[in-house]
């Protein structure tokens, strides 16, 4: 049935093309003749029902995406709504909630803390992670396997599981609730992430460069500074952006370790949603919009340098710019 | 310096990162384990664990979490396989969809919970649409119950599983399946005999990561569920012990149990994979 359908569609198209002007016709028929064996092969490969299957898969996919889009649209709509209850659209629109959210949730302070935490985590995880990745890629040392395991585990164990013992230790040594504590906690998933992104990246850099630099008298530091670092810039950029996006959204660890003055935006948003009823829902959604705008801005920037799969997990392939 | 020790010397570059992670990850874990055997209220060494497995507010949390995490993992991984196959060719449409799917992952569970509360809430667009289309006439209850949490696990977990599995699927050389097609294999046979065996390691990995992520559900179980009842998951029990009753010893015990259950399930899945298929663990060009 599938085959009959496809050929009957293809023939009138060719006939129509033949009726058109000379240039169009020749071009179209050329394309037609080139595409025909491909289409026939495709038909043979896909049995009957495969079209139904494809419609089903795409349908489910579109249903999912539409729901996510509408969910985001709900937040957007509500943040501008004067009053919205049980109707398709709100009664009116206002910017009032943004001003109120800014005041009510002390967003200036929260955003500053977020910038401090995210900035420190990105810089520290690169400063500590890149040398470690270099050592793992190039050096042989006792306990290398064990070191690898220590770097892998924080990525496998979810933050909730290790977050509670970690918060316990931080509170015991007096770092609980401080900015340092929040930064240290966020380093735990970020640092291994940088190491595992950078190790394959360093591995594919020609080791002869190092030998050449050493012949000219460079020590490890000089080699690092003048040879390796410039070559690593694309990888470091990619790793840094990935850590940035992940740290903005890292809820659990920050939630467990932050005090009232050291909340990042996502934790402040959680508290706001948690205590719905205390504040107007539109005000909470205005804050959610600010969070969403910041996250998506960085996601868009990050996607210029990394593939979408890298945002999800550590990479198998080296970052772009290889 | 002679060359040999210098090669070892470069290994020291790993030290700062290692010290940081040992201090922040390994030591807390060890300390938590140690602390869990020192119950705050006295009793024997195992008092916390005995309490966990006898208290009706504690042990059922493991069952509740499994009831959420297992279906969520099955849905997310199960739906990702056909979706990844549909989008494995790098066309503009598939790139666009992949790009869109990144959004729910990066936005995080807190924002998804906030959006869901309005969108799926009793007066949100979703129930309104269901009523308008005449698909459902009673009151739609999708928030503040089990379903709300499950939906949020799918919204945040499906894109995650999909992107992981997509990277595995695209890593498989399509000429292998085409060769099978030339020899007369239909699409199902190609999938069953060519793709699936090569995909099994990747699928196991994706299933493990999806499960572990779903098992540690926290913010959405509080915001979208019934934190005192039907969706009282393990992480809520651990959080309450640590930050509401300040019983860090019991909290560590709960965290250790949580980690142990995850380990058990992941080990089970990896073991099952070994029983199911043994061969090269990397799919692809070989």
From TrEMBL, chain A:
Major site of localization recorded for this protein: membrane
Ion transport listed as a keyword: no
Protein name: ABC transporter permease
Spans traversing the lipid bilayer: 52-75, 110-137, 149-171, 183-202, 223-248, 286-306
Pfam families listed in its UniProt record: BPD_transp_1 (PF00528)
InterPro entries: MetI-like, MetI-like_sf
Record's keyword terms, sorted: Cell inner membrane, Cell membrane, Membrane, Transmembrane, Transmembrane helix, Transport
Domain ABC transmembrane type-1: 111-302
Signal sequence, start to end: none
Family: Belongs to the binding-protein-dependent transport system permease family.
Organism: Pandoraea vervacti
Compartments, record wording: Cell inner membrane; Cell membrane
Membrane topology: Multi-pass membrane protein
């Amino acid at each position: 049935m599938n085959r009959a359908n496809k050929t009957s569609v293809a023939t009138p198209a060719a006939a129509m093309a033949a009726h058109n002007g000379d240039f169009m016709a020749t071009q179209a028929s050329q394309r037609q003749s080139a595409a025909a064996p491909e289409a026939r092969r495709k038909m043979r490969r896909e049995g009957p029902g495969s079209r139904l299957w494809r419609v089903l898969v795409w349908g489910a996919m579109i249903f999912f995406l539409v729901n996510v889009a509408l969910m985001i649209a709900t937040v957007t709509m509500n943040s501008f709504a004067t009053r919205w209850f049980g109707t398709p659209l709100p009664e009116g629109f206002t910017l009032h909630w943004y001003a109120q959210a800014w005041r009510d949730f002390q967003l200036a302070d929260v955003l500053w803390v977020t910038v401090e935490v995210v900035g420190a985590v990105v810089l520290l995880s690169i400063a500590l992670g890149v040398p470690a990745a270099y050592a793992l890629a190039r050096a042989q040392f006792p306990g290398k396997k064990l070191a690898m395991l220590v770097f892998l585990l924080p990525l496998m164990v979810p933050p909730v599981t290790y977050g509670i013992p970690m918060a316990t230790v931080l509170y015991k040594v007096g770092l609980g609730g401080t900015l340092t504590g929040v930064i240290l906690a966020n380093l735990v998933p970020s640092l291994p992430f940088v190491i595992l992104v950078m190790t394959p990246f360093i591995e594919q850099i020609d080791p002869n460069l190092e030998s050449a630099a050493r012949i000219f008298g460079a020590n490890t530091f000089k080699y690092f500074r003048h040879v390796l670092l410039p070559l690593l810039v694309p990888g470091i950029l990619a790793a840094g952006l990935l850590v940035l996006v992940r740290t903005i959204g890292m809820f659990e660890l920050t939630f467990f370790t932050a005090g009232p003055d050291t909340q990042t935006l996502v934790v402040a948003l959680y508290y706001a949603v948690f205590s719905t009823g205390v504040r107007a829902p539109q005000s909470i959604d205005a804050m959610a919009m600010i969070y969403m705008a910041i996250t998506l801005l960085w996601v868009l920037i990050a996607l210029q340098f990394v593939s979408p799969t890298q945002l999800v997990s550590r990479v198998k392939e080296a970052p772009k710019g290889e | 310096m002679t060359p040999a020790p210098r090669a070892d010397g470069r290994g020291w570059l790993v030290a700062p990162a290692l010290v940081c992670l040992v201090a922040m990850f390994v030591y807390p874990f060890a300390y938590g384990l140690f602390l869990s055997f020192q119950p705050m209220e006295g009793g024997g060494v195992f008092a916390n664990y005995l309490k966990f497995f006898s208290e009706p507010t504690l042990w059922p949390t493991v069952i509740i979490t499994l009831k959420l995490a297992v279906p969520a993992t099955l849905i997310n991984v199960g739906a990702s396989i056909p979706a990844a196959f549909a989008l494995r060719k790098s066309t503009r449409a598939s790139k666009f969809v992949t790009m869109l799917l990144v959004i729910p992952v990066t936005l995080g569970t807190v924002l998804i919970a906030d959006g869901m509360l309005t969108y799926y809430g009793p007066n949100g667009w979703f129930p309104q649409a269901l009523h308008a289309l005449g698909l459902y006439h009673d009151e739609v209850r999708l928030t503040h119950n089990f379903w709300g949490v499950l939906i949020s696990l799918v919204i945040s977990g499906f894109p995650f599983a999909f992107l992981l599995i997509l990277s595995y699927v695209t890593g498989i050389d399509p000429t292998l399946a085409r060769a099978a097609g030339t020899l007369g294999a239909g699409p199902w046979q190609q999938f069953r005999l060519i793709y699936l065996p090569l995909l099994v390691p990747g699928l196991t990995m994706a299933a493990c990561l999806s499960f572990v992520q779903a098992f540690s559900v926290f913010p959405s179980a509080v915001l979208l569920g019934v934190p005192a009842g039907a969706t009282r998951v393990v992480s809520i029990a651990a959080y309450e012990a640590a930050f509401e009753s300040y019983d860090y010893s019991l909290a560590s015990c709960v965290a250790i149990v949580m980690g142990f259950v995850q380990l058990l399930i992941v080990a089970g899945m990896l073991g099952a994979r070994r029983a199911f298929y043994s061969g090269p663990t990397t799919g692809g060009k070989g």
